[in-house]
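Open question from group meeting: does this chain pack into something compact, or does most of it stay loose? Before anyone orders reagents, we agreed to write out a predicted structure and look at it together. Recording both the input and the output here so the notebook holds the full record.
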Amino acid sequence: QFLMANKLDTAMWISRLFTVYCSALFVLPLLGLHEAASFYQRALLANALTSALRLHQRLPHFQLSRAFLAQALLEDSCHYLLYSLIFVNSYPVTMSIFPVLLFSLLHAATYTKKVLDARSSNSLPFLRNLLEKLNANQQNILKFIACNEIFLMPATVFMLFSGQGSLLQPFIYYRFLTLRYSSRRNPYCRTLFTELRIIVEHLIMKPSCPVFVRRLCLTSISFISRLAPTVA
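Structure tokens returned:
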């Protein structure tokens, strides 16, 4: 009754579980490397479906207008719909699957707990314990996801020069990264950029750091800071 009363949430729960399943079989290629590539695409397509459903839930009344597009781009679900479309037809990159896997795992765990509560307050204690441990590490997981989002930017550039990526991919991914940086619901990407800047500045200001390395890092920090969007 609980599942039928929340059909859209249940559909997203199933698609997230399927995303976790496909992502796991890509990261751990138990069925062979050839099959792993197909599971990579399936995971991203399932994530795109979940993101589209979530976006529909957040903005149920679609309008073909600039205002609606601007509002949609503020939603995290729109960001990851774009993310899935960027990588679904690209060369499989293990780093790119982790955000999809971990976000799906976190959201699926939250809804699984609701399903268990609807069934019985004491049902499946072992599973409940696993879900509690996952929830306790949520902040660390979100930081790891943000770290993946950031370091995928140079990875897309490297893929381009190695012949495994397209010319447009780094530019589209840069747009995705600016959306994540400006996210209203998830500040972790913005926080990680700040933390990384503090760490690098601390290291390069040590006397043992060569002058040319210090200058290179300061120039890079200044360049990246200029690319960062203004956050309201």
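Observations to bring back to the group:
The two ends are 42 Å apart (CA to CA).
The mean pLDDT is 88.
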